[in-house]
Amino acid sequence: MKRALSVTLVAGLILAATRCNPFAPDQTVALGVSKLDAPATVAADNTIDVVLTVEVNGCERFDRITVERGVTGATLTAWGKDESVGRKEVTCPQVLQLQPHSVQILPPFADPFTITVPRDRLSPLTATVRTQ
């Protein structure tokens, strides 16, 4: 019984170590965004619901949207994981998917409130929301 428990414990430790390797390359990447949808106006005490159309290729998967904001505006960035980073043996299919992902921006807002999505080599996407 002790031997079986020891083998199970060792196997569990090995499995945990291989699934969370601190020496593996960081596969986090900023994803492309092709479209920004935001309302033209919003009540001063309501949230702003924003939809980003995120570009994901065959090896990438969406993770999250970060919001850096102030009273007069917010900058949104879509983040994901790229399974090919640091792995030469991985071949990625050339399939581009456009995935809508939403985020809410909480008040307070200045009038106007500018939402910006930086895009690597392209001009940023912007939307201006007026408060009523």
What does this structure look like?
The radius of gyration is 21 Å and the shape is elongated. The protein has one domain. It has one helix at residues 2-19, and strands spanning 28-30, 32-37, 41-42, 48-56, 60-69, 73-82, 97-105, 113-117, 125-131. It is built from 1 helix and 9 strands; from the N terminus they run H-E-E-E-E-E-E-E-E-E. The longest helix has 18 residues, at 2-19. Strand 5 and strand 6 (73-82) form a beta hairpin. The strands form 2 sheets. Strands 1, 3, 5, 6, 8 and 9 form a 6-stranded mixed beta sheet that branches. It has a 3-stranded antiparallel beta sheet with strand order 2-4-7, with no helix packed on it. 14% of the residues lie in helices and 46% in strands. It is mainly β and 132 residues long.
Secondary-structure map with pairings?
Blueprint: H1 2-19, E1 28-30, E2 32-37, E3 41-42, E4 48-56, E5 60-69, E6 73-82, E7 97-105, E8 113-117, E9 125-131
Parallel strand pairs: 3-9, 6-8
Antiparallel strand pairs: 1-6, 2-4, 4-7, 5-6, 8-9
Residues in β-strands, percent: over 45%
Low-confidence stretches: none
Q: Which of globular, elongated, flat, extended, rod-shaped describes the shape? A: elongated
Give me the secondary-structure category. mainly beta
**Roughly what percent helix?**
10-25%
What is the number of E strands? 9
Determine the N-to-C terminus distance. 71 Å
Question: How large is the radius of gyration?
Answer: 21 Å
Global mean pLDDT: 84
Q: Sheet with the most strands?
A: 6 strands, mixed
Order of helices and strands: HEEEEEEEEE
